[in-house]
Amino acid sequence: VMAPHWVSRWPWWLFRASPGWRQTACTLRAWVEPRRWPGSFQGAGVASPLARRGCSSTSSRLPAVVLTQERCAVQRLPFSTVSEEDLAAFECIIPGRVTTDPEELEAHNVDWLRTHRGCSKVLLRPRTSQEVSHILRHCYKRNLAVNPQGGNTGMVGGSVPVFDEIILSTALMNQVVSFNSVSGILVCQAGCVLEELSRYVEEQDFIMPLDLGAKGSCHIGGNVATNAGGLRFLRYGSLHGTVLGLEVVLANGTILNCLTSLRKDNTGYDLKQLFIGSEGTLGIITAVSILCPPKPKSVNVAFLGCPGFAEVLQTFSTSKGMLGEILSAFEFMDAECMQLVGRYLHLACPVQESPFYVLIETSGSDAGHDADKLGGFLEHLLGSGLVTDGTLATDQKKIKMLWALRERITEALSLDGCVYKYDLSLPVERLYDLVTTLRAHLGPCAKHVVGYGHLGDGNLHLNVTAEAFSTSLLAALEPHVYKWTVDQQGSVSAEHGVGFKKRDVLGFSKPPEALQLMCQLKTLLDPRGILNPYKTLPSRA
Ligand SMILES: O=C(O)CC[C@@H](O)C(=O)O
Ligand SMILES: [Zn+2]
C-alpha cells in the first residue's frame, strides 16, 4: 500500500518502530504553562483570580462587581443578622478563626467569574466536623443563614453569599484521614484541594477519579457538593458512583456519619446520594470516602484537527470501536476557542488551523499495546479524512501542554469580555447545532459564540461573549437556549450545577412533581432554610 503524502509529517507513523519516538513524537510549536485556575482564596491580601491571571497586579484595580442583591430581583429572607454575641460564641468554638476584616472577606464574597457578590461580614474557618456541628447548632438556634464555601471556583454563583450569609469555609479542614493502598479508598476532610489529593494518591500509584481545570483551588467537599464532572468522567463516571461514603453536618448541627468505605452496601436508602450535588443546601459535607483507580502506566494524548463536526462525531465513534478500554477522554473545541486561547493566553495551536479540534486521551497498563492501538487508530483517521492534522504526546510535560489548550478555554473567554455561559447535556449528534444557529442568529451582537466540552459525555459548554452586559443579548439567548435544549431532551445543567444563577431554569429540566419533592426534602432536612439560601431550589416553589 502506498503511503499517503502526509505520512512524513506524522510522528507516530514515522517513529513507531523507533526506540526514540517517545521523546520526539510531538509537533508542538510552543509549549504552554500547565493549567492553573485561581489559587486558593484563603489568606489576607490574596489577589483576585483575574489579577492572578495577569489582568492587574492588585484586585483593587479590577472593576467592582455589582452586588447580587442590586443586580437581581431577590429579597432577603427574614434571617437574623450577626450580633456581637454571635461573634463571641463563634470565637469560643473556633478561637482565632473568626474573620470580620472586610478586605479579607472580599475574596470570599465574590465568585471567581466575578459575576456574583455578596456582603457577608463574617468568615468562619473550622478545622473539625465537631466545630462545624457547634457552629451550625448555634446558627440554627439563632436563625442565621450560612453559605458553605470550598475553593470558590463554581460557575453558577453557588459558592458566595447573596446577602450577608455567614461564610463557612472548609479551607482548614484539609487532612487526609486514611488511604488504603490495596482497595484505593481515600478518606479525607472536605477542604482538601483536589490537586493536592491527586499528588498524594499518585505517590502511591493511584489517581483521583476526577480531574478538572480548577484542580489547583477546588476542594473535594465542593466537588462532591456540586457533583463536579470534569475531564475523567468518560472513564471513571460520576461522583455518584465513586464516592463511597460521606460525613455531613445537618442544619441543626447533627453529625450524620455515613462515611463508610464499602463498595457494596444495600442497607436501605443510600442517604449520601442526597448530598452529592445538593450544593450545600441540605447539609455541609465535612468528610469524603472516595474510590481511587490505579494510576495508568501508559498515558497518551492526541490533539487532532477535524474538517467538520460530522468528522468529530465519526472520530468519536471510531475511537470507541478502535481504542475500546484504553479511551479515557474525548474532548472537543471549535476554531474560535483556539483563537481565543492563542490571543489571550499566548498558547500556540500545535496543529494546522482547523474548524474543530479534538483531544483524545488513552490510559492503559501496557505502553506497547496502547501505542499499537493508538497508531492504528490514528492511521485510520488520517487515511479516511476524518482528521486533517494532529500531534501526539506521550510524556507528562507535553501531555499537560496539550491539555492546557482545552482546560484554559474558560480563562481565555473571561478575558474576552462579558461571558454568557451555558452548560448543556445534549444528544451527542446535536451537540454543535445550537452553536451554529446562535452564531447566525446573534450576528454582530456577540463578539464570540463558541462551543467546546466533554463530547464523550454529551456535554456542551456554549459560551457567548460581548463587550458588555446587555439585556437585549440576554433576551436573545434566554429562554431560547433552554427551550432548544429541552426540545432535544437535554439538561440545562450538565455538570456546573444550579447555584443562584440557574435556580429559575430548573423547570425546563424537571417536572413540577420533582421540584416539589426537592422542596419537601429541603424542608425536612433544613426546616429554617439556613443552609445556602437562594440557591439550587426554584425561587417560587
Ligand atoms: O467555562 C465553561 O463554560 C466550562 C468550564 C469547565 O467545565 C470546562 O470543562 O472547561
Ligand atoms: Zn466542563
From TrEMBL:
The keyword Acyltransferase does not apply. Belongs to the FAD-binding oxidoreductase/transferase type 4 family. One of its GO terms (biological process) is malate metabolic process. It comes from Otolemur garnettii. This is D-2-hydroxyglutarate dehydrogenase, mitochondrial. One of its GO terms (molecular function) is (R)-2-hydroxyglutarate dehydrogenase activity. Catalyzes the oxidation of D-2-hydroxyglutarate (D-2-HG) to alpha-ketoglutarate. Also catalyzes the oxidation of other D-2-hydroxyacids, such as D-malate (D-MAL) and D-lactate (D-LAC). Exhibits high activities towards D-2-HG and D-MAL but a very weak activity towards D-LAC. Its cofactor is FAD. Keywords: FAD, Flavoprotein, Oxidoreductase. Residues 115-295 form the FAD-binding PCMH-type domain. Its EC number is 1.1.99.39. GO terms for cellular component: mitochondrion. It is an enzyme of class 1 (oxidoreductase). Pfam families: FAD-oxidase_C, FAD_binding_4. The lineage of its organism: Eukaryota, Metazoa, Chordata, Craniata, Vertebrata. It catalyses: (R)-malate + A = oxaloacetate + AH2.
